[in-house]
Design goal:
The chain is mainly alpha-helical and 151 residues long. The chain folds into two domains: 2-97, no CATH class; 100-145, no CATH class. It has helices spanning 2-30, 35-38, 41-63, 70-97, 120-129, and strands at residues 100-106, 109-114, 142-145. It has a three-stranded mixed β-sheet, with no helix packed on it. 13% of the residues are buried.
Length: 151
């Protein structure tokens, strides 16, 4: 049992470290306040946390057996880690594509433009018409005031 718990601890700590780097970078960099709340990330983040912090280490706890050959154990854990990294990549990509680019305030309303709201053609048009305001792949969220047109 000690062997299993040791591998479980190792897998849990490494998973937590990688997840902390990714979610911390997204939270501190591109999902600044109030983006984390407005985009609904609080509904996606628990799924990513559950898959990467619970399922991966628990599977390692289940397959870890000191009587297994090292080669077989390494293969089993490699498969678990590969599936876990694929799920983490999918979750991180989903969060990246949903990051806020603009918080637009008009009259008494706050609207948000997310990266997934803009197509490549719209971004190219924005770069031609107003390159200073056009989003880039690493754009941080910007606050924009959009007055209503005069009637």
């Amino acid at each position: 049992m000690r062997f299993r718990l040791k591998l479980f601890e190792l897998h849990l700590s490494s998973s937590a470290s990688v997840l902390l780097l990714i979610l911390g970078g997204l939270y501190l960099g591109w999902y600044r306040w109030p983006g984390w709340y407005l985009t609904g990330v609080l509904h996606v983040a628990p799924i990513v946390l559950g898959v990467d912090l619970v399922l991966g280490p628990l599977m390692t706890l289940l397959v870890a057996n000191p009587t297994k050959a090292w080669r077989v154990l390494a293969r089993d854990i490699a498969i678990i880690v590969t599936v876990q990294l694929c799920a983490l990549g999918y979750g991180a990509t989903t969060l990246w594509r949903g990051r806020p680019l603009y918080y637009t305030y008009s009259v008494n309303r706050l609207e948000m433009v997310q990266a997934s709201d803009l197509s490549a053609a719209e971004i190219d048009l924005a770069r031609r018409q107003n390159p200073a305001l056009a989003p880039h792949w690493n754009s941080l969220p910007r606050w924009v005031w959009a007055p209503l047109p005069d009637r």
